[in-house]
Design brief:
- It is a single chain.
- By secondary structure, this protein is α+β, with helices and mostly antiparallel strands.
- The chain is 30% helix and 25% strand.
- It has 15 helices and 23 strands.
- The strands form five sheets. Strands 11, 12, 13, 14, 15, 16, 17, 18, 21, 22 and 23 form an eleven-stranded mixed sheet that branches.
Length: 561
Amino acid sequence: MIAASRPVAATSVHGPDEPAGDLLAGPVALGEAEELAVVGVPPDTLDRNRPRLRVEVGDIELIADGPGAREALTDLDSFVRERLAGLDAANRAQLLTALAPLTGWEGLPPALSDGLHAVREALRERRPLAVVDQRAERAVEVEALHRIADDEFYVRGWLWEQSRSVVELTAVSPEGERVELIGRAHRHPRPDVAERFCAGGHEPLGFVCHFRTAAPSRRRDGWVVELANAAGRGVETAAALSSTDPASAREGIVADAVASAGDTEALREHHVRPALTRLQELRRDAVAVDEVESHGTVPESPEVSVIVPLFERIDLLEHQLVHFADDPELWECEIVYVLDSPEERDHLSRFGGELARLYGLPFRTATLTANGGVALARNLGASLASGRRLLFLDSDVLPARPGWVGELSRSLDASPNVGAVAPKLLYEDEAVQHAGVELVRAVDAPEWSAELRMKGVHGRLPAANVGGRVPAVTGACMMTDAALYRELAGMSWIYVQGDYEDADFCMRLARTGRQCLYAPEVALYHLEGQSYPSEARAANRRYNRWLFSRSWSDVIEEMGR
């Protein structure tokens, strides 16, 4: 028996020797697929020799029974008009509430959403459409609606109510499920809306809400958001998903995270963070190693595995290999390039083969099923590695001379309680790009920030050449033990795009009593930003900085004592 939250039942509509239909599977033809949903009725009570449909809502029981049932139910519009439209508003609302969860039942077709949407439109009580006009007493507007998952959404918009007594702000799914937002939405002043629309003296409020539905909603359009005051007067506005692309959803939600509107901390913690974390979790679960290709004979038992994420800039592969091929130590390493832009698969296969023949240095390429970001690329690359040590290297990092891999490994061996070591990274003009990472917080600033030490000073400055323990190092070039990396579950996937996941890993090292080491005797060049270019990087960094600080403030403060 499948239990329903309300006493609604639909039994099969078919004869003994013919296929049956899916309940509300579309605007027509209830009787074409295999079987109707059974809601709240034990299957063994069904009489398959007697086609019928039975729906109970409160004290209302609707039955289509007997030999003419199939003909009566093949036209959904007629069925709703003739059998359901006569119900009063309360019972129609109950019916819609009871039918909406059907989309979550296993085995029901995706087209069920279309059928339920048609029923919702035929039966629901409508409010006046919201009009954005300064003379209007109330208004509501949806600016963005993002699907996080089939049953998880994120909405941003604004409203005004002349009486200032908003008691309902309700999102109505295309299938008819109602989710009340007023008690959970983040609300804040919207002076930009006031300036554009509210010369009449209204005080508009913005709202942002991450919310879940009880059942999946798979349609892109058909959403309604309703606003009502204490007197029951209200308006409604239509809404549709802003995009079906998770990357666009991430970008839009990150933009809200960095906007300075009201209590930004509460907005980020209760709405932005859970939405982005879920998007990143779904992204992680959808990405895997799709194909591994070997170019040459890669060492079977290497001391060091070099993991290099590749994203779009396949040409950077050759710039590295021309340097690697002149370094005898790299011939002893396992080199794995992880392609995080799988649309470049064929290009990489051809180009990689040409480079292997040209330079002779063996390496592997691993293509991911989808773009997952730099942290996932590193983690999946590490899952393929067989070396005792892992050396993470960005594709825009080039060595200054041979022998640097062994020097980093010996520094790690010689330093007790050190979990990761990194070299000095230089710009092309010999200025320092990285001399370790320091964690700083401005006076009265709420957040800790991971900043590159001595960035911009000349690489020969004496202070830049003093090695030692540092709070963190960059993942652009970092060596750690493979067993330790796996023990700590690799780099965190919750950061957007690729920023702060390396500092986060260093904080997990610190929590286990291990430290990070800056080894300036080893120098490489870093063409910063070439491997993962992004116009949205500044906004991502601001959100990632907040998330990092929120996660690790206690550990950072303990490190400073």
